């Protein structure tokens, strides 16, 4: 166990296939990046446009959440196999994080 | 590279322990260090009880008393109970799941040494101008106002040892996730492994808020920050929240592994499989989860408003349900079994009603309006000593007797063990039962003295007498340990006769590489299954004998922790001593250069070769 | 099995003690003898939750005893291999649902009382003349002493709170330095005095405190606040409404009239006015924020420094060395007040005499 | 596992980062660590939100007067881009293309360093205005939150640089692949945190 690694040598077709697949994936990553830039732009614009805070704040928070999901699932490959346990733990962290922020916004007072 | 013990000089034994990355030896380190801190914390408790034995006593001065309760609470929670639990986790969990090693042997050692140096640092405060004196909760306005360096020792010491704890937690999590033997599915893991798993998850999520809170305190006290200074816009309630977001899960970090130990002992000495295994697992996870939703029950009187109080009241009560599930499943495990009253089993038996008594007073406190009366009174002191001693300490003592043969291949004396048990149990109830009433009669906690004739004199005296019983019990235990070590009567595999899980199937003393061949797990209580089927070897194997990869020993964790220890003095005296900043930098340099050495020098470990394995004793092929 | 029985004997002994205790407990200090509605509500919750948890412990105990009596190895035989029962869904359900029901029974009054006890709307109610109907007290907790201001009545006192009976008394709680907690066990649960905000609640007192052991209820600081936290006691005097009103009038008048009897007291006043007046006011009319406790009612009080018996000797001891009696308190040592010297015994006597004469009750 | 095993692009495993047990442990352990970091940053964010704009009486600094969005926008772009470049690096690692991986990592480091430079400039600017760590609770909370993130960036830079230097001669193998991979995860996490910082601290600081 442990130190033994499966030393599988790919044949040419397998090799090309995997190459192609990762190239495809990389194109997807660039698209993700474009979306993230776009979302950032919207967020900044929304603030500059000086709409009502009740409108802007939820929007930019939502945009942030989307960006984070993109980072996690695409850049950090959380959608791939083998991330089951780690996803569980990350979301547990997120829930606790959310509750923490929520309480600090409600029951730390002056 | 053979496990056969060669005769070694004392120096090389010490060096071996300073550099070890073997989880079994780290377990022994945790046991020794935790044990020492337990005695220190216990002596502090005795001082408390002496001071309170009679009204208007002047055995301890007011300031000193506050230092002693603070150090008693802090030491017991951070430096005694948790490390002792880690001792058993390290000793048992890898073996229980059929792993050759833990996931991060190097980090495991680093975790220990950080805890150790943090603990030493904290305790050095006694000799360097006074210990922390704002209670183990160190509430902000007082801890910011507290003169001297006590609180600085608290914040820095806990920061260092907390880092160690976090590392240990991650290590256990990954070990359990990745290193289980083939066939050891999650739903076949012994309960001690499960509780270790959940407790480690709690550590992972609960320690960061403490880290942040302690940093705030360090910034405020040493670097001019304003988090808790209301004149500068700060807010002390932030500390309360951060502390309890950590603090409440912390009590389950203590309780759950203890539950795990009992969940091993009770089936073993009832010769019956754990009743409702999956309910037990589910309850464990649920307790862990709910543990994060209830922290504000420590703050009912802070003035959070009725809505928050009501929500946290009800959420807190919910924890009784999964805990009750556990209590009843333990009872039903024994029901229809064949109960043998060994010392560990006696502790387990005493645990059930004692912990229930502590738990139900917790439920009373969970009722916010009632807690307005109970909070910060001796009722609270009674509650948490009932759950902590009745749950955690009984669990530790049970585990000590139960796993001693696994760790040392000898057996603690049963007669002395039972003497300890009865003295401790009687002393415990005598000390703390009466304190419920002290609280109801209006006695606040954390008072260094109390005036006569308020109706508290007799009860306090009774309580102090109870503490003497506990002290005698601990002394008998120490005698027992010394006798057992000097007698050194080896016992071999499965000494209790009724072992059920994999750790008892392994030959004794446990080889340094654990399993010669990785076992194949066919169900819950593997060893029991194999024994029932008449398998003399106790396990079947998932692989042929092959080379085993082992990590190298390393002194680097020790040096890294030592660097932090040195650096902490620099931070502590920042702005006060000319040498402070250089020392801070020196410490960080030590740590970082040790780290750099680690990352620049490849450390690939070594292999135990097949031929040596075949020769090794215990290999019956 | 002797051992098991011994343990249970201990338990039943302790249970007996429980019964015995609920009947006793000092009236001026015990939460088991509530002095007003708030304390009574909380006591009721104690009884409800106590009943529920007693039920729980009884059930657990019964199952427990049956188990260890019936299934000892010595009884079932050394070689028995018990049936390896996996579990039972029915039972799991049973011991999930019953506790839930029990907890709901506790949760309902808990939530109701939580909201009731937090209702301070009565504080703002005014009568036809625009005067506040209820008495409100601003409590400021200081390092080891308490200040009680009655903002609507223009009076102020310290260390001994005076409240009317048979009505809700409202409190605004605040700390001047570090966190403390305001607790009158007999009257009801505590509430913290924070440094950054004001906490509000109310208490009620059924009867005048006159008949109590010391004629007062005991109040405590319930949040660790420094070395002398244990000594940060205060006392509460509840007066029937008429007596209370009379007391208020006297207090309001205490600004003008200062009847001093005797030469010694006058000498005391002189010393006081040179050394002590910077920190201690002696008029009950005024507002909050004193550096030291207001001493207008000193002669009526029950204690010196909140916890020592009310004798002249203790006053003298206290002034002569406050640090010894309340470590860490902020009152200067006499040397600082008196050009580097201790007060002479004669001066101390004069001060004590003077202070004992400060009274608004007759 | 043998360090000296040489690979070809054909024999290089698909998921080099967790194809050994050591790698898998590192991988899972690091993700768990990030779960803990999430809570750590949540505590900092929560505190910041509670203390935002709070200071001694007469405090003159508010988010709206202090913050300059154009600067923040540039910083955001730098960090977002560096996230993409580290994805490129991992892409080349997967293809066993060590040179390109190093090159992309280098770009990542440069972008990160530029981000850090702007941040230092920003902090310096505030200090000159009189808005310092010790000036108010707001100041303390702001510098602690944003500074902790900055510290993470610095550690990330150091980590990646060290990895590059250490392995520059050696090339890729199964011993260092998990290290590169976790370092890149760390870098993405830093970006995730920044997304919340620019949203919660800066943008929400500007809306009223
Ligand atoms: C191991 C440690 C441990 C454990 C396990 C617990 C368990 C619980 N604790 Fe305790 N607690 C502490 C350690 C612990 N506590 C400490 C150290 C403090 C004080 C800190 C300080 O201020 O210094 C404290 C303080 C504390 C408070 C704050 C009091 C105050 O300061 O005002 C509260 C309030 O709700 C509370 C509640 C509970 C509850 C509801 C449980 C529950 O988990 C208990 C659940 C168990 C049972 C209920 C028994 C078994 C159940 C059944 C048999 C089923 C049926 C039961 C019912 C229907 C009731 N605890
Ligand atoms: C794991 C946690 C733990 C444990 C095990 C204990 C164990 C004990 N505790 Fe403590 N306690 C706390 C955690 C714990 N406590 C905490 C968190 C607080 C709150 C602190 C605060 O307010 O901030 C507290 C507070 C606390 C108080 C209240 C102080 C106050 O509010 O003023 C009291 C008073 O009775 C007390 C007593 C005891 C006693 C008698 C024991 C006994 O069980 C101890 C038993 C052990 C011994 C008696 C060892 C004796 C050893 C010897 C005599 C030497 C023998 C040596 C050799 C042979 C070498 N504890
Ligand atoms: Cu709790």
TrEMBL record, chain A:
Membrane-spanning ranges: 30-49, 55-76, 88-109
Gene Ontology terms: cellular component: cytochrome o ubiquinol oxidase complex; plasma membrane
Enzyme's top EC category: oxidoreductase
Bilayer topology: Multi-pass membrane protein
Subcellular location, record wording: Cell membrane
Keyword Aminoacyl-tRNA synthetase: no
Molecular-function annotations in GO: cytochrome bo3 ubiquinol oxidase activity; proton transmembrane transporter activity
Pfam family of the protein (one): COX4_pro
Keywords: Cell membrane, Membrane, Oxidoreductase, Transmembrane, Transmembrane helix
Superkingdom, natural source: Bacteria
Catalytic activity, EC: 1.9.3.1
GO terms for biological process, alphabetical: aerobic electron transport chain; electron transport coupled proton transport
Homology family: Belongs to the cytochrome c oxidase bacterial subunit 4 family.
Name of the featured protein: Cytochrome c oxidase subunit IVB
Protein source organism: Paenisporosarcina antarctica
Name of the coding gene: ctaF
UniProtKB/TrEMBL annotation, chain B:
UniProt xrefs under CDD domains: Ubiquinol_Oxidase_I
Record's bilayer topology term: Multi-pass membrane protein
Keywords: Cell membrane, Copper, Electron transport, Heme, Iron, Membrane, Metal-binding, Oxidoreductase, Respiratory chain, Translocase, Transmembrane, Transmembrane helix, Transport
Family: Belongs to the heme-copper respiratory oxidase family.
GO biological process, one term: oxidative phosphorylation
Gene3D superfamilies, per the entry: 1.10.287.70, Cytochrome c oxidase-like, subunit I domain
Domain Cytochrome oxidase subunit I profile: 9-522
One GO CC term, this protein: plasma membrane
InterPro entries assigned to the protein according to its UniProt record, in alphabetical order: Cyt_c_oxase-like_su1_dom, Cyt_c_oxase-like_su1_sf, Cyt_C_Oxase_1, Cyt_c_Oxase_su1_BS, Cyt_c_oxidase_su1_bac
PROSITE patterns in the cross-refs: COX1 (PS50855), COX1_CUB (PS00077)
Role, per record: Cytochrome c oxidase is the component of the respiratory chain that catalyzes the reduction of oxygen to water. Subunits 1-3 form the functional core of the enzyme complex. CO I is the catalytic subunit of the enzyme. Electrons originating in cytochrome c are transferred via the copper A center of subunit 2 and heme A of subunit 1 to the bimetallic center formed by heme A3 and copper B.
Record-annotated membrane-spanning stretches: 27-48, 68-93, 105-128, 153-179, 191-219, 242-262, 274-298, 310-332, 344-364, 384-404, 416-438, 458-483, 555-573, 579-597
Domain of life: Bacteria
Organism encoding this protein: Paenisporosarcina antarctica
GO molecular function, one term: oxidoreductase activity
Name of the protein in question: Cytochrome c oxidase subunit 1
Automatic annotation (TrEMBL), chain C:
Cofactor(s) listed in the protein's UniProt record: Cu cation
Residue intervals of the Cytochrome c domain: 263-359
Membrane topology: Multi-pass membrane protein
Compartments, as annotated in UniProt: Cell membrane; Membrane
Pfam annotation, one family: Cytochrom_C
Domain Cytochrome oxidase subunit II transmembrane region profile, first and last residues per copy: 23-121
Xref: NCBIfam families: CoxB
Similarity remark: Belongs to the cytochrome c oxidase subunit 2 family.
Stated name of the protein: Cytochrome c oxidase subunit 2
Gene: coxB
From TrEMBL, chain D:
Pfam families: COX3
Domain of life assignment: Bacteria
Protein name, per record: Cytochrome (Ubi)quinol oxidase subunit III
Membrane topology according to the record: Multi-pass membrane protein
UniProt-annotated location(s): Cell membrane
Stored PANTHER family: CYTOCHROME C OXIDASE SUBUNIT 3, CYTOCHROME C OXIDASE SUBUNIT III
Family: Belongs to the cytochrome c oxidase subunit 3 family.
Domain Heme-copper oxidase subunit III family profile: 1-206
GO annotation (BP), single: aerobic electron transport chain
GO cellular component terms, A-Z: plasma membrane
Annotated transmembrane regions: 28-51, 71-91, 103-121, 141-165, 185-205
Source organism of the structure: Paenisporosarcina antarctica
Keyword annotations of the record: Cell membrane, Membrane, Transmembrane, Transmembrane helix
InterPro entries: Cyt_c/ubiquinol_Oxase_su3 (IPR024791), Cyt_c_oxidase-like_su3 (IPR000298), Cyt_c_oxidase_su3-like_sf (IPR035973), Cyt_c_oxidase_su3_a-hlx (IPR013833), Ubiquinol_oxase_su3_dom (IPR033946)
GO terms for MF: cytochrome-c oxidase activity
PROSITE patterns: COX3
């Amino acid at each position: 166990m442990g130190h033994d690694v499966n030393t599988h040598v790919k044949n040419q077709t397998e090799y090309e296939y995997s190459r192609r697949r990762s190239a495809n994936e990389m194109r997807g990553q660039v698209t993700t990046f474009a979306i993230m830039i776009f979302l950032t732009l919207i967020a900044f614009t929304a603030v500059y446009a000086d709409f009502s805070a009740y409108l802007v704040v939820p929007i930019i928070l939502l945009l942030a959440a989307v960006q984070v999901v993109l980072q996690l699932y695409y850049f950090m490959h959380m959608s791939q196999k083998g991330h089951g346990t780690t996803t569980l733990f990350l979301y547990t962290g997120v829930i606790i994080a959310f509750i923490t922020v929520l309480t600090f916004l409600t029951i730390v007072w002056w | 590279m053979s496990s056969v013990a060669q005769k070694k000089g004392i120096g090389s034994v010490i060096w071996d322990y300073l550099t070890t990355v073997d989880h079994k030896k780290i377990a022994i380190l945790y046991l020794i260090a935790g044990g020492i801190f337990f005695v220190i914390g216990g002596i502090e408790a005795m001082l408390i009880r002496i001071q309170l034995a009679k009204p208007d006593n002047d055995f301890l001065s007011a300031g000193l008393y506050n230092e002693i309760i603070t150090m008693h609470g802090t030491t017991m929670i951070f430096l005694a109970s948790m490390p002792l639990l880690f001792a058993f986790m390290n000793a048992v969990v890898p073996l229980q799941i059929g792993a050759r090693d833990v996931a991060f042997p190097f980090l495991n050692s680093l975790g220990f040494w950080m805890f150790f140096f943090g603990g030493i640092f904290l305790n050095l405060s006694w000799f360097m101008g006074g210990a922390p004196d704002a209670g183990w909760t160190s509430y902000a306005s007082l801890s910011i106002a507290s003169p001297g360096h006590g609180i600085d020792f608290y914040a820095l010491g806990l920061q260092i040892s907390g880092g160690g704890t976090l590392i240990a937690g991650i290590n256990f999590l990954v070990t359990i996730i990745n290193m289980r033997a083939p066939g050891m599915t999650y739903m076949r893991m012994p309960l001690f492994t499960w509780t270790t798993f959940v407790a480690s998850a709690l550590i992972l999520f609960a320690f960061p808020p403490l880290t942040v809170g302690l940093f705030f305190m360090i910034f405020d006290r040493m670097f001019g920050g304003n988090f808790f200074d209301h004149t500068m816009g700060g807010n002390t309630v932030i500390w309360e929240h951060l502390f309890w977001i950590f603090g409440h899960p912390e009590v389950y970090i203590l309780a759950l592994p203890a539950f795990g130990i009992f969940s091993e002992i009770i089936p073993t000495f009832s010769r019956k499989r754990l009743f409702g295994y999956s309910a037990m697992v589910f309850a464990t996870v649920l307790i862990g989860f709910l543990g994060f939703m209830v922290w504000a029950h420590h703050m009912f009187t802070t003035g959070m408003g009725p809505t928050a109080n009501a929500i946290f009241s009800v959420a807190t009560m919910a924890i009784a349900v999964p805990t009750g599930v556990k209590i009843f499943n333990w009872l039903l495990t024994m029901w229809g079994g064949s109960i043998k009253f060994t010392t560990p089993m006696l502790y387990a038996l005493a645990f059930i009603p004692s912990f229930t008594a502590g738990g139900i007073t917790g439920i009373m406190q969970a009722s916010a309006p009632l807690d307005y009366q109970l909070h910060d009174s001796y009722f609270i002191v009674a509650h948490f000593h009932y759950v902590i001693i009745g749950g955690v300490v009984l669990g530790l003592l049970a585990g000590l007797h139960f796993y001693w043969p696994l760790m040392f291949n000898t057996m603690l004396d049963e007669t002395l063990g039972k003497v300890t048990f009865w003295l401790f149990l009687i002393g415990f109830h005598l000390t703390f039962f009466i304190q419920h009433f002290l609280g109801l009669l209006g006695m606040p906690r954390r008072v260094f003295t109390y005036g006569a004739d308020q109706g508290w004199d007799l009860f306090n005296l009774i309580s102090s007498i109870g503490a003497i019983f506990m002290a005698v019990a601990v002394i008998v235990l120490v005698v027992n340990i010394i006798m057992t070590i000097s007698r050194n009567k080896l016992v071999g595999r499965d000494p209790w006769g009724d072992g059920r899980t994999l750790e008892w199937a392994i030959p004794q003393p446990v080889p340094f590489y654990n399993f010669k061949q990785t076992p194949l797990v066919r169900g819950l209580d593997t060893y029991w299954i194999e024994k029932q089927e008449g398998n003399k070897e106790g396990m079947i194997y998932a692989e042929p004998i092959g080379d085993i990869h082992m990590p190298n020993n390393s002194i680097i964790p020790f040096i890294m922790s030592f660097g932090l220890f040195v650096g902490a003095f620099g931070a502590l005296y920042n702005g006060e001593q000319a040498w402070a900043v250089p020392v801070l930098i020196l410490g960080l340099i030590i740590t970082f250069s040790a780290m750099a050495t680690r990352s620049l020098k490849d450390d690939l470990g070594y292999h135990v070769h097949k031929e040596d394995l075949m020769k090794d004793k215990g290999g019956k092929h | 099995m002797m051992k098991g029985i011994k343990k249970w004997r201990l338990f039943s002994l302790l249970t007996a003690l429980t019964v015995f205790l609920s009947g006793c407990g000092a009236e001026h200090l015990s939460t088991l003898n509530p002095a007003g509605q708030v304390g009574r509500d909380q006591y009721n919750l104690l009884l409800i939750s106590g009943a529920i948890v007693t039920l729980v412990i009884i059930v657990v105990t019964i199952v427990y005893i049956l188990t260890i009596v019936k299934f000892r190895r010595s009884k079932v035989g050394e070689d028995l291999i018990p049936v390896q029962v996996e579990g039972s869904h029915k039972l799991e359900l049973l011991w999930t649902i019953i506790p839930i029901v029990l907890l709901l029974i506790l949760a309902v009054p808990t939530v109701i009382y939580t909201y009731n006890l937090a209702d301070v709307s009565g504080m703002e109610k005014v009568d036809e003349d625009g005067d506040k109907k209820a008495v409100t007290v601003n409590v400021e907790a200081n390092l080891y002493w308490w200040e009680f201001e009655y903002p609507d009545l223009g009076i102020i006192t310290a260390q001994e709170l005076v409240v009317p009976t048979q009505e809700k008394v409202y409190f605004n709680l605040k700390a001047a330095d570090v966190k403390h907690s305001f607790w009158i066990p007999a009257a009801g649960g505590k509430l913290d005095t924070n440094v950054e905000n004001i906490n509000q609640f109310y208490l009620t007192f059924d009867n005048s405190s006159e008949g109590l052991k010391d004629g007062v209820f005991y109040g405590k600081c319930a949040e660790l606040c420094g070395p002398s936290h244990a000594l940060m006691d205060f006392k509460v005097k509840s007066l029937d409404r008429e007596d209370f009103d009379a007391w208020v009038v006297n207090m309001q008048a205490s600004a003008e009239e200062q009847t001093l009897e005797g030469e010694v007291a006058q000498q005391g006043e002189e010393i006081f006015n040179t050394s002590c007046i910077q920190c201690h006011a002696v008029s009950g009319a005024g507002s909050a924020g004193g550096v030291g406790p207001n001493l207008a009612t000193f002669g009526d009080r029950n204690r010196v420094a909140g916890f020592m018996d009310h004798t002249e000797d203790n006053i003298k001891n206290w002034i002569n060395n406050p640090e010894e009696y309340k470590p860490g308190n902020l009152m200067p040592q006499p040397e600082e007040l008196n050009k580097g010297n201790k007060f002479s015994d004669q001066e101390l006597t004069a001060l004590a005499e003077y202070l004992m004469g400060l009274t608004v009750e007759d | 596992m043998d360090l000296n095993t040489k690979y070809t692009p054909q024999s290089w495993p698909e998921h080099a980062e967790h194809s050994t047990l050591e790698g898998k442990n590192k991988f899972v352990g690091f993700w768990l660590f990030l779960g803990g970091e999430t809570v750590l940053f949540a505590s900092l964010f929560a505190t910041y939100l509670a203390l935002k704009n709070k200071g001694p009486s007469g405090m003159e600094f508010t988010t709206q007067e202090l913050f300059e969005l154009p600067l923040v926008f540039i910083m955001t772009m730098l960090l977002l881009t560096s996230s993409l470049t580290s994805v490129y690096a991992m892409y080349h690692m997967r293809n066993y293309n060590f040179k390109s991986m190093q090159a992309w990592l280098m770009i990542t480091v440069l972008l990160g360093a530029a981000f850090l430079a702007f941040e230092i400039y920003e902090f310096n600017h505030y200090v000159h205005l009189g808005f310092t760590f010790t000036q108010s609770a707001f100041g303390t909370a702001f510098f602690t939150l944003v500074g902790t993130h900055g510290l993470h960036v610095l550690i990330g830079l150091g980590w990646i640089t060290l990895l590059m230097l250490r392995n520059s001669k050696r090339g890729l193998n199964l011993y260092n692949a998990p290290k590169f991979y976790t370092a890149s995860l760390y870098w993405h996490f830093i970006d995730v945190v920044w997304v919340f910082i620019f949203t919660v601290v800066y943008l929400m600081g500007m809306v009223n």
